[in-house]
Amino acid sequence: MPDIVIIGIIFNPVLARFEIMQYYCIMVYVKEAAGILKRHGYRITAPRKTVIGVLGEAEGPLSPYDIQKCLRANDNSLNHVTIYRILDLLCSLDLVHRVITAGGFMRCTLVNKKGCHRHMICRSCGSVTEFADESLCEKEDAVVRQLGFYAEHHITEFLGLCSSCYDSENGGVDEANPR
Ligand SMILES: [Zn+2]
Ligand SMILES: [Zn+2]
Ligand SMILES: [Zn+2]
Fold it and tell me: Domain 113-179's class?
């Protein structure tokens, strides 16, 4: 990865650098996804590869209908049932997450990162950012354990504002340190 980043910086404008990094991320994602499928004994079929490619390129969550539209735009097609089955498989392998609030599916940006993967959804620009924090999992386990429950997985979506939308709604004033 550092090599690619350096190439981006050398070719200079900020935009070009971003594009190169973005392209690199997609390549890494497709490769990682293929590796994980293989390791779990699944074949990398053309439809699976296609859905992985579409989600890999998407910047935000896509519904199965959105995926179908993307495929049609590229003279490709898969029926709904096939798309749903592939999404189920990719979700079970944590390669894709369902983002309930956004009503769609999104590629995992933290493949192999420990702790449940969670999403922060900006109500203004709609951006979805993923993070994982194992210590948060432990705290949650302890809370429900006191209630007599044994948690195996945690799903949390945080709704609010990303920092740039927060800044523009608050005129760049940090509420914790008002003028
Ligand atoms: Zn993830
Ligand atoms: Zn935002
Ligand atoms: Zn967890």
Answer: alpha beta
